[in-house]
Amino acid sequence: MKTIAIVAPGAMGSALAGVLNYHHLEVLTLLDGRSFASAERAKKAGMMPVSAEELMQAEVLLSVVPPAFAISLAEQLAPALSAAAHKPLYVDCNAISEQTVDQVKTLITATGAGFVDGAIIGLPPASPQGSVPRLWFAGEQASQLKELENFGLQVSIMQAETGAASALKMSYAGINKGITLMCALMLINASRVGAADALLQQMEESQPALLARLRKSIPDMYSKAWRWAPEMEEIASLNAGELSGEALYQALATFCRQMAEDQQRDGDFVSLLDAFLQADQRKSQP
C-alpha cells in the first residue's frame, strides 16, 4: 500500500493521517467546503488536498465523518467512483447503525467499488508516535486492511459480515457514552433539588471508581454533546422494535442537544456539573 485517502480531516481523521504519514504512507483528502481549521489540521498531518477525481488514486478510502454525513459523503463520491477505472476500497468508519451501513454499502457497491464496514474505538492519537485507537473491520474484503498495521495503526479483523463492526461501535458507545450521559443527567437533577452534597457523599462511599471516571468523562463531553446527539440516534435504531433501548437512546440524544443548547445560552448545566465534580477538591483546599 502506498496511498490512502481519509475524508474528512476532522479531529480523528487528521490524527490518523498524521500516524500514517509518519510511517511513510501518502494520505489524500478533500477540503472542498471545509473550514480553515480543517485545512490547518490537514496541513499539520501532512495530508494532500485533492479533487474527488484525484482521490480515486488511493488504494483505500476511509470515510471518517460525523454520523449524520456518512450517507451524504457516499453520495458525493459515488459519481467519481463510478467513473474511475481504478476504484479504492471504500471503508466506512463512522458511528452509524447497521441499517445506515447498508444504505452506504448500496451506494458504494453500485459504483463497482469494494466496501468494508469499519469502527474506530478510542481517542485520536495525540501525536504520530503516541498510542492509537483500535480499528475494527468486517466484511468479505476486510482482511485487505490488515496491512495498515505496517503503518502504525492497530487493526482487528472480525470474522463477520458487513454491519458487525458498526454494531460493535454502537454497542461500545452505548455503554461508554451512555454511562456518561445518564450520570450527567442525574447529577443535574440532584443538584437542582438540593441533593448534590448527599449524592456526592454516597458516591464517595459506594462508587469511588465511577466518581473518578465521571470527573474526567463528563467535562470531556461538554464540547462533544452536539456531535453525540446523532450518534445516540444511530444507537437507538439498533434492534429497533425488538428491544426497549430505542426510547432510552432517543432520550439521551435529546439530552445531548439540551447540553449543547444550554452552553450556547450560558445556562447552568455545566456550572452545576462542575460544582458537583469539583466539590471535594474544594473542600481539601486550605
Please provide a written account of the structure.
By secondary structure, the protein is α/β, with parallel strands linked by helices. The protein has helices at residues 11-22, 36-44, 52-55, 70-83, 98-109, 164-192, 196-206, 208-221, 225-236, 245-264, 269-277, 279-283; strands at 3-7, 26-29, 48-49, 60-63, 89-92, 115-121, 134-138, 154-157. The protein has an 8-stranded mixed β-sheet, sandwiched between helices. Helix 4 runs parallel beside helix 5 (98-109) and helix 6 (164-192) crosses helix 10 (245-264). The longest helix has 29 residues, at 164-192. It is elongated, with a radius of gyration of 21 Å.
Write the layout of secondary structure elements.
Blueprint: E1 3-7, H1 11-22, E2 26-29, H2 36-44, E3 48-49, H3 52-55, E4 60-63, H4 70-83, E5 89-92, H5 98-109, E6 115-121, E7 134-138, E8 154-157, H6 164-192, H7 196-206, H8 208-221, H9 225-236, H10 245-264, H11 269-277, H12 279-283
Parallel strand pairs: 1-2, 1-4, 2-3, 4-5, 5-6, 7-8
Antiparallel strand pairs: 6-7
Helix pairs in contact: 4-5, 6-8, 6-9, 6-10, 6-11, 8-11, 9-10
